[in-house]
Amino acid sequence: MATQHSRSAARLMMAPAVILLLGWMLVPLTMTLFFSFKRYLPLRGDSLERGLDWVGFENYARFLSSSSFWPSVQATLVIVGGVLVVTVVLGVLLALLLDQPFWGQGIVRILVIAPFFVMPTVSALVWKNMFMDPVNGILAHLWRFFGAEPVSWLSDASLQSIILIVSWQWLPFATLILLTAVQSLDSEQLEAAEMDGAPAFARFGFIILPHLARAITIVILIQTIFLLSIFAEIFVTTGGSFGTRTLTYLIFQRVVDSQNIGLGSAGGVYAIILANIIAIFLMRIVGKNLDR
Amino acid sequence: MGRIVLDQVKKRFGDVTVIPELDLEIEDGEFVVFVGPSGCGKSTLLRLIAGLEDVTDGKIVIDGTDATEVPPARRGLAMVFQSYALYPHMSVRKNIAFPLRMARLAPAEQKRRVEQAAEVLNLTDYLDRRPGQLSGGQRQRVAIGRAIVREPSAFLFDEPLSNLDAALRVGMRLEISELHKRLKTTMIYVTHDQVEAMTMADKIVVLQAGVIEQVGSPLELYRRPRNTFVAGFIGSPKMNLICGPEAAKHDATTIGIRPEHIDISETDGAWKGTIGVSEHLGSDTFFHVQCDGLAEPLTVRAPGERALSYGADVHLTPRREHMHRFDAQGLRID
Ligand SMILES: Nc1ncnc2c1ncn2[C@@H]1O[C@H](COP(=O)(O)OP(=O)(O)OP(=O)(O)O)[C@@H](O)[C@H]1O
Ligand SMILES: [Mg+2]
């Protein structure tokens, strides 16, 4: 897109998509902002037809002063961070493993991708009932087989369990992106490093990992966007109890359980702010990595 | 020291035999060039010596010790790859220092050696750049720098100049030759460019399909090619190979005569023919001449400028003392 002409043509052709996306985003955003300044409790008889009372920043103040706000931010960050660490570390290892030639490579690669196609609700239910159930779960049987007391995962190690379930879903994505990156590494570089006297660990640290840096940042960026809003996994497993109430889940509870739309909307605005802080933070790092 | 001996080395990839059985001795300090057509196993042979591929059978002896099972890093060899294989995320300085860092040399010593190598290779101004910010020739020099800091017992080069343009190739060719004169280290150099082979080598190894066709100094190969393959491969333009009745007159199946050993005249000579394409290089003129009674056109070199036009009738005379004769197996007859 070098010439003036091709640039304006490009703008023209992108316009419909941009306008659609903007509308898609702007309508809910303005509605959220609008409700966040209103008192809106449908069970108490408030409705749009009768007009809503303007309450200023009261909803914001109440959401922030609620004892569950900071714990929910903390839970969100712990889950997002935990899943990122697990998926990136295991993703790199799996990608290196899958890059090796072995018998049945094609089938194994498809199997690795499979979890990505399972719906979050379904996978969370499968984990909850088939693996983590303290009476009938496979893990409980395993524990009993070794003579140990079965762990009630979702109440005693709730955050870890959620991280495990979500990581399981996102690992294929990370693995896939990292695998393509591993495959694009020039094998002569590794051979050169081998001749230069670098043992396997040094080759990983000095050659493979820097080569993967770009792919890793992309994995982190994309996953963060989706992980900030995980919901189904919490809804069907712990229902937000045992310290697994994330910001998203807290907003859901304010709107649906307590039927306080104004308060929930204020929470939504906080969530947007949090997401943006993280996004700016990440873009900085990514920008640095992608510019090279 | 850098004496390398290949003893009955064989290499198979699955069912494909790339190197059937090969013996070769490379003396310390020699500049050895492997030449051969594409796919003849030059790179494979080099990688076997480097240890990047395992031999299927046979022994590789470096400086008197059997190195067949020794990992690449401990063979004391350094390799320069065709794609340079520089580490893209490290600066030139770090690239060159990498082998020293892996050998856990003291930082001061690392710095000294890197700077010395940079000086030799004219890289001092570029030490803090990334490989991506260098030209092809500079990258090539970084790759060589990374090889020389290790002070290896032999250098292995795999077509190091094939990515460079013609002018730069000539320059780098000289630089590598000069480096060899100065370091006096064994160098093994792979190329399919016979001009590189002729100009740089102390010893040329001509390979075809994994088999050594001839080993010798450039002039030995030029003067006394052992068979028709070497005869056709060494020398530029190619030697004219003539079969049939004309060869039978000299008691041979094939006779060979180089373009520079044929005299061209407008009036009289042994063979009569018509001129086809002519190539004027200024210093020389090459004529492609279709002779009566010969299947293939002959290439003839005339020094300087010769104005002979397309379709002109000429007479050619081969110089008898420079004629090569080959038997039915393609082997030289003396
Ligand atoms: N890893 C491999 N597996 C199977 N066959 C291989 C492998 N590596 C090389 N070969 C085969 O071995 C033969 C020699 O390859 P090699 O790379 O040594 O050729 P070369 O002489 O270096 O050619 P070029 O001048 O084109 O680089 C080729 O026929 C090639 O197909
Ligand atoms: Mg090759």
Automatic annotation (TrEMBL), chain A:
Transmembrane segments: 12-37, 75-98, 110-127, 162-182, 212-236, 267-286
Entry keyword annotation includes Membrane: yes
Location in or out of the cell: Cell membrane
Stored CDD domains: TM_PBP2
One GO cellular component, as annotated: plasma membrane
Family: Belongs to the binding-protein-dependent transport system permease family.
Any matching Pfam family: BPD_transp_1
Protein name as catalogued: Sugar ABC transporter permease
Entry keyword Transmembrane: yes
This protein's UniProt keywords: Cell membrane, Membrane, Transmembrane, Transmembrane helix, Transport
Main location: membrane
InterPro entries attached to this UniProt entry: ABC_transporter_permease, MetI-like, MetI-like_sf
Example GO biological process: transmembrane transport
Domain of life: Bacteria
Membrane protein topology class: Multi-pass membrane protein
Domain ABC transmembrane type-1: start-end pairs: 73-282
TrEMBL record, chain B:
SMART domains membership: AAA
Membrane topology per record: Peripheral membrane protein
Annotated localization: Cell inner membrane
Domain ABC transporter residue range list: 4-234
SUPFAM superfamilies (UniProt xref): MOP-like (SSF50331), P-loop containing nucleoside triphosphate hydrolases (SSF52540)
Keyword rRNA processing: no
Pfam families referenced in this protein's UniProt entry, alphabetically: ABC_tran, TOBE_2
Assigned keywords, A-Z: ATP-binding, Nucleotide-binding, Transport
PROSITE patterns the UniProt entry points to: ABC_TRANSPORTER_1 (PS00211), ABC_TRANSPORTER_2 (PS50893)
Family: Belongs to the ABC transporter superfamily.
NCBIfam families: PRK11650.1
Protein name: ABC transporter ATP-binding protein
Organism whose genome encodes this protein: Oceaniradius stylonematis
